[in-house]
Write a structure and sequence with these properties.
By secondary structure, the protein is an alpha+beta fold. It has 6 helices and 17 strands.
Length: 382
């Protein structure tokens, strides 16, 4: 489900809630109309009691079939519902490092038609800033990167052999520090890119220890923005906000083959971090996709004056309801009527006749037994 809503009500511990005392009986004028939720539950019970066939969750709440997608001609637009990152092998043709395990962002979402999407976003690398030492120029970049990379990998011990490079690159940018009064003056900063987010701390320690030596000398560096979480950094730099719409332009993404899929999403694609478009939630981009929402409520039998505890107080009721955003009733799959051939119908007809014949014989036998019993009773009485 794309979204989950928990309604535990009252005071709860461990997913249990205390049940309030029964309300006093109300007059007809005070009675309120039953909630939609209660009526829906009653309808579920009636359907379950009167139906001979079980209704599965997939047949009731399953997604619509995903139409064919041609990446070269069709854009893919979806409302992202969740974002996370993982370390994986680099994908050929995508930006970023091409060796070792790199940071990849996963964006889950739903299209306007209700089809599920998983987008793997490649090429976005973690980074931090440090002020450039006096006299630092472009010709010092490679020397600085190489020396810093050796120090970071040295702090990793035996695990360093798994990564050809820990520090991917360094560039000079002119930025203004927020600390102290600077008169908005900008000065040169070094933007340092690393392979994985976990290398940020090792890089920060190597810069602050004061043991990094280049041709300009040995310096202790002040570090900026080393404590920003990677997913948050990605969202800020790429303009992604919670639950906004993402567009993958035609020709800018790839559909994953079934053998390489990591999920059950109907569309699973790969895209570069600088190729997708993040739309602000304005105008038509403020609409909500048909998300499937699970609401559940758990009640337990609490003891008087004591908070309910999962290991002691039994759960007496669990209610769950699924609703598609924007719809009043669940979407169901159409069931095809089963057509039976003539031979099968003839066979069933013969079986019915045989069963009826057996019943008639049984009735005749019972009558015979009853008549015999009456005769014996009359003789005994005489």
């Amino acid at each position: 489900m794309e979204a989950k809503r928990a309604s535990l009500g009252g005071d709860a511990i461990g997913g249990s809630a205390m049940i309030p005392p029964p309300a006093a009986k109300r007059s007809k004028s005070e009675e309120v109309k039953e909630s939609t939720f209660a009526r829906a539950l009653e309808a579920m019970d009636e359907r379950g009691d009167n139906s001979n066939e079980a209704v599965s969750a997939e047949s009731t709440w399953g997604r619509l079939p995903a139409p064919p997608l041609v990446p070269a001609r069709s854009p893919l637009v979806f409302q992202q519902t969740e974002l996370e990152s993982y370390q994986g092998a680099p994908l050929r043709g995508m930006p970023g490092a091409q060796a070792g395990k790199v940071e990849i962002v996963r964006m889950y979402g739903v299209t306007a038609e209700g089809n599920s999407v998983l987008a793997h976003v490649h090429g976005f690398a973690p980074y931090l800033y440090t002020p450039a030492p006096p006299g630092f120029e472009d010709k010092h970049l490679q020397q600085f990167r190489s020396r810093l990379d050796s120090m970071v990998k040295g702090s990793l011990g035996g695990a360093a052999s798994e990564f050809p490079e820990a520090v991917l690159g360094v560039e000079i940018l002119h930025k203004a520090s927020l600390y102290g009064y600077q008169e908005n003056a900008k000065r040169p900063f070094l933007k340092i890119y690393v392979l994985q987010h976990r290398f940020i701390n090792a890089t920060r320690r190597a810069l602050e220890d004061g043991n990094l030596t280049i041709s300009l000398g040995t310096f202790a560096y002040e570090v900026y923005e080393s404590n920003i979480e990677f997913n948050l950094r990605f969202m800020i730099d790429c303009g992604v906000v919670g639950m906004n719409w993402i567009e993958l332009p035609a020709g800018k993404y790839r559909i994953r083959p079934e053998a390489n899929k990591q999920s059950l999403a109907q569309y699973e694609v790969d895209v570069a971090y600088d190729d997708f478009i993040s739309h602000a939630a304005e105008g038509d981009w403020s609409n909500i996709a048909p998300l499937r929402i699970l609401s559940f409520d758990i009640e337990c039998a609490g003891r008087k004056g004591i908070f309910p505890e999962p290991k002691i107080d039994p759960v007496i009721q669990i209610a769950a309801m699924v609703q598609v955003q924007g719809q009043q009733k669940p979407r169901k799959k159409e069931k095809k009527k089963k057509t039976k051939n003539k031979k099968y119908k003839k066979y069933k007809k013969i079986q019915k006749y045989k069963l009826l014949n057996r019943h008639l014989k049984l009735i005749e036998f019972l009558r015979y037994c009853c008549d015999g019993a009456k005769l014996k009773y009359s003789m005994a009485k005489a």
